[in-house]
Amino acid sequence: MSARSRQRLELGVLLTPATLFLIAFFVVPLVIMMVMSFLMPGLYGGAEWEFYPHNFGRILGFADPMFEEFDPVYLAIFWRSVRIAALTVLCTFLVCYPAAFQVARLPERWKNFCLFLIALPFFTSLIVRLFVWVLLLRQTGLINEVLLDLHLIDRPLDMIYTDGAIIVGMVYIYVPFMFLPIYASVEKLDWALVRASQDLGAGPVRTFLRVIFPLTLPGVIGGAIIVFIPALGNFVVPEVLGGAKVLMLGNLIEQQFLAARNWPFGSALAMLVMAAMLVALFIYVLTEGRRGSDPALGL
Amino acid sequence: MSDQIVTLENATRSFPVPEGHRIYALRGIDLEVSRNEFLTLLGPSGCGKTTLLQAISGFIDLEKGRILIDGKDVTDVPPHRRPVNTVFQNYALFPHMSVGDNTGYALEIAGVPSAERRKRVAEALEMVGLKGLENRRPRQLSGGQQQRVALARAIIARPKLLLLDEPLSALDKNLREAMRIELKTLQHELGISFVFVTHDQEEALTMSDRVAVLNAGQIQQLGTPRAVYDEPATTFVATFVGASNLFEGSRDGNRVITQDGIAIQSNRPAATNAAVTALIRPEQFSLVAANDQPSLDIDVDQVVFVGSSFELLGHTAGGRKLTAMVPASGRQQIGAIEASRKARLYYDPASVHLIATPEAAE
Amino acid sequence: MRIARTLGRGSLALYTIIFFGFIYLPLALIVVYSFNANPINMMTWSGFTTDWYLQVLGFKTKISENALYLESTDQLLAAVRNSLVIAASTTAIATVLGTALAIAIHRYYFFGKSFYRVLLFAPMLMPDIVLGIALLIFFVAIGAHLGLVTIIIGQCTFLISYVFIVVSARLAGMDRTLENASADLGANEWTTFRKVVLPQLMPGVLGGALLAFIISMDDLVITYFISGVDITTLPIFIFAMLRRGIKPEINAIAVMMLTFSFVVASLGLYFRSRQK
């Protein structure tokens, strides 16, 4: 066998199983879901093979006149999800940036140790990390206990089952996602530029605003994207920390699939999440031009 | 108003090393920089010259001693408040700003309105020969152009003093030589003092009003280029600046006798030390005798043709290595020397400089 | 002036300590309170006990004789077993496929390679829930029974990407000249692969495997949708318990899960740092 065709054979052996697997179990399911979002919901679950734009219509404004009036609740849920996800990104950023900045400037050994500490929670189960906050934020939770014991409050605070609780939970979970890109960005910073800025008369604050932050922005944007996307479609956190009161896109989708059995509608909602993800990625790629390349994150 | 723009008194700074002790980058340095002066800090790597520069600009704190700039004690003043600007070795141009924004940065920070800023940026860029390049980005410029932007950026705010940290080391030879002239001209035009750091002694000699030769955290000599070259204060300066033949020995009348029996005549006055080192630069040797000049005989190991001169590398009978530099016009003698492998080197006792050998070991 | 600077740096350092405290304090708290002897109010300390752990592990304890708890222990053990079986299977499959992909992309040229490489990031970027329901629809559409197999397949879709990234990073850092030396000394391709490439690649492969294992054990969302009614995994078990109402045993289970994750992750990260 010639070297060339043997190479082809090797390549084939290596590439084919995984590719087939991914096509069969990744691409195809997504395509089916996309198709499903345009189908009419069957009476007892499942779907009819008929083009039905009203799955999207229910959300966007043109509902099926046979069944309902347009209920803006879906849009409201969508916007609430976007809002909460955005706030999560903001809070995660505020929490992470100073710490990532500091860690990037530590000597080698400390740096690695801190990175280890950051990576560790990433490997624990989401549900465990959320569970903690239930215990902390409940009416009978630790925070209320302590505050009551210290007589700082008379009645327990209403913390859980609010938007705030969800944000706290999501921030807690997504901190490692935001920390690492920012850290990578700060590490690459050329400190001669900081000195140059100070040399030219800019104090620490001006230097940060004019030099440090703009140059670490790529990391911030990267982190924002990889926090925003999962935050948007999250249903576990709103369920555990938001209870029945706060409904987000993720909960809605879950309901449609498991309770309401309206799969086409659920698919349409999922498409919405995917659309948001694509928009976010698009923005990322757009800003790539200005930034140059970003190191791939290998965890 | 004093004559000095910068005064350092007993500047001392040390750093801890992994082995446990501390090394002293600056050992009690006293230095005064005059107004409108081009001063070069010259020395090998690790001598403290960059540390000294950073102490003046404020990026390094002094353990002991103080710094005065234009009469004011700035020892505790942070870098962004000192009226000093620096041209960094790798230029440190802000990659996310245009050339114009880079140049005008100091003015922007100082709150100068944008119309005036634009005008002064244009002036500064023209002054360094980069007219019209305001809208380019640093990465679109060549090394030489980037360096000029760094210059423009540093001078635009009319600092009292400009510090340059080996700014020419990243440039190729021709560009470097051209920039030397330009920097010297610029300094005259601006009328502010330049403190220039380099390890290249040719740069130091060609550009400076005065040179400070540093080694191991101390200034070995501070003087005009000629003084440093013709009359080095220590053997370190003698060997670092220019090539040298050193004869360490003890004084006996107007001769210096070395341990291997060589006698060097010198008419120069020396310090009261009996122990001195005589210095004869290679170019002070001649193959032609004049007026009863003393001489040294050597066995010639190598004759190197350098174009405008010949370099003779040889050793005395006692094994001491010597270098001589003779003009190319002495071609005929060179031929004879190459044949016989021996040479007689004449020198003028009046120009043999004597360095007092320090009594205690360093 | 210097005081201001030191203050600035000091407060940043202080903030960083608080930051790490924010991350780890809650976890430390549930470890502490898992020993709390209060059966009613979990966060009011009434004494030290290891009973909750014993309870979970199946021993009868003083704290409660309610039969319900025994049942939940059986369910718990089933969940743990399922999680481990799934994790082992997915790790095996994903490691093999992911490593093969990494080698293919790194060492060979083919049409659309860079495009494909970018596409491999898609499963990781895709929100869990979208992937989960897509898989659910798919499996139902082809009439598959939702159970262990569907979970394993579903998890592999994104685990392959994780393994791919880890092994790729390792491949990128490998010295090709060693293989040239091996060939020069007479080894054919397969031998070179076996004796030179594979040993060097091993840390990356192991790292990828470890990563896949942990992510599989911890996966909640995707497994949730495609597990059907028969199969429960550990994360889903806890999730369900949380929905029904918090019992102190959850605390003990959570701490055990935490410990397990920490130990495995520490090992993994430790090996990765040694390979560098």
Give me the secondary-structure topology.
The complex is a heterotrimer of chains A (299), B (362) and C (276).
Chain A lengths: L2 H34 L2 E3 L5 E5 L2 H7 L12 H32 L3 H15 L3 H12 L4 H8 L13 H25 L3 H9 L4 H30 L2 H7 L6 H11 L3 H29 L8
Antiparallel strand pairs in A: 1-2
Helix pairs in contact in A: 3-7, 3-9, 4-7, 5-7, 5-10, 7-9, 7-10, 8-9, 9-12, 11-12
Chain B lengths: L3 E13 L5 E13 L3 E5 L6 H9 L6 E6 L2 E2 L10 E4 L11 H5 L1 H6 L3 H14 L15 H13 L5 E5 L7 H18 L2 E6 L2 H7 L2 E6 L2 E6 L1 H6 L4 H6 L4 E8 L2 E4 L4 E3 L9 E6 L14 E11 L3 E7 L5 E7 L3 H10 L1 E5 L6 E4 L6
Chain C lengths: L1 H32 L17 H7 L9 H41 L5 H7 L2 H4 L2 H14 L6 H25 L4 H8 L4 H30 L2 H6 L7 H11 L3 H28 L1
Describe the structure.
The complex is a heterotrimer of chains A (299), B (362) and C (276). Chain A has 299 residues and is an all-alpha fold. Chain A has one domain (73-293): MetI-like fold (Orthogonal Bundle), CATH 1.10.3720. Chain A is built from 12 helices and 2 strands. In chain A, strand 1 and strand 2 (47-51) form a beta hairpin. The longest helix of chain A has 34 residues, at 3-36. The radius of gyration of chain A is 24 Å and the shape is globular. Chain B is 26% helix and 33% strand. Chain B contains 10 helices and 19 strands. In chain B, the strands form 4 sheets. A 6-stranded mixed beta sheet of chain B has the order 6-7-8-3-9-10, with helices on both faces. In chain B, helix 4 (114-127) crosses helix 5. Helix content of chain C is 77%, strand content 0%. The longest helix of chain C is centred in the N-terminal third of the chain and has 41 residues, at 67-107. The model of chain C has no long low-confidence stretch (mean pLDDT 82). Classes of the chains: A mainly alpha (299), B alpha+beta (362), C mainly alpha (276). Chain A: It is found in: Cell membrane. Chain A: Belongs to the binding-protein-dependent transport system permease family. CysTW subfamily. Chain A: This is ABC transporter permease. Chain A: The chain crosses the membrane at residues 12-39, 77-101, 113-136, 165-186, 207-229, 265-286. Chain A: Keywords: Cell membrane, Membrane, Transmembrane, Transmembrane helix, Transport.
Roughly what percent helix of chain B? 25-40%
Major sheet attributes of chain B: 6 strands, mixed
Oligomer: heterotrimer
What does the overall shape of chain A look like?
A: globular
Q: Helix and strand succession of chain B? A: EEEHEEEHHHHEHEHEEHHEEEEEEEHEE
Question: Looking at CATH, which topology of chain A would you report?
Answer: MetI-like fold
Taken together, the total number of domains of chain A comes to 1
Low-confidence stretches of chain A: 292-299
The number of helical elements of chain B comes to 10
Largest interface: A-C, 81 and 81 residues
Strand content of chain A: under 5%
By DSSP, the count of extended strands of chain B is 19
Family (chain A): Belongs to the binding-protein-dependent transport system permease family. CysTW subfamily.
Transmembrane segments (chain A): 12-39, 77-101, 113-136, 165-186, 207-229, 265-286
Membrane topology (chain A): Multi-pass membrane protein
Keywords (chain A): Cell membrane, Membrane, Transmembrane, Transmembrane helix, Transport
